[in-house]
Design brief:
Layout: H1 2-30, H2 37-60, H3 70-86, H4 88-110, H5 117-144
Helix pairs in contact: 1-2, 1-3, 1-4, 2-5, 3-4, 4-5
Length: 147
């Protein structure tokens, strides 16, 4: 049960990320001159893939995957909407902070000695490396972003 609860918390984070990136990509596509949507689309797709992987693992462990991001997803959308009003750089920074928070969550879960070997392998080989890649992508976008 402990593993399922932990994985569902991570799943909520990933569901929130997919909702937030969908909103960001849609917003950037509205303003073609911003040009970041093609860089953020793969990050969005990677989060969707993480959702699928976590859902499958939760099922294999006999659990029921959560279906929504809960309060965290609502908060993330509010933050992104506010950042969008402040400009592209603020929106990218909000996405980057979300990615860093997600990476921290994965690293904390890896400290859990009761974590199943399947969950540990998924996080170490796929989910955390993807999260770190997203941070680097956003670092590059922030380095070249102007308001």
């Amino acid at each position: 049960m402990h593993n399922i609860e932990t994985l569902n918390k991570l799943l909520k984070n990933e569901l929130s990320a997919t909702e937030t990136y969908q909103q960001a990509v849609d917003k950037l596509k509205e303003n073609v001159t911003l040009g970041e949507s093609e860089h953020l689309q793969p990050v969005y797709e990677a989060h969707k893939d993480a959702v699928s992987s976590l859902q499958a693992l939760i099922h294999r462990l006999g659990g029921i995957p959560c279906e929504d991001s809960g309060a965290w997803g609502t908060w993330a959308k509010i933050v992104l909407e506010g950042a969008n009003m402040l400009g592209k750089k603020a929106a990218l920074k909000a996405l980057q902070e979300g990615e860093k928070s997600g990476a921290d969550d994965y690293e904390k879960v890896l400290q859990d000695t009761e974590l199943s070997s399947d969950a540990r392998a998924l996080i170490e080989t796929k989910l955390l490396p993807a999260q770190q890649s997203h941070i680097h992508t956003l670092d590059r976008l922030l380095d070249t972003a102007s308001e």
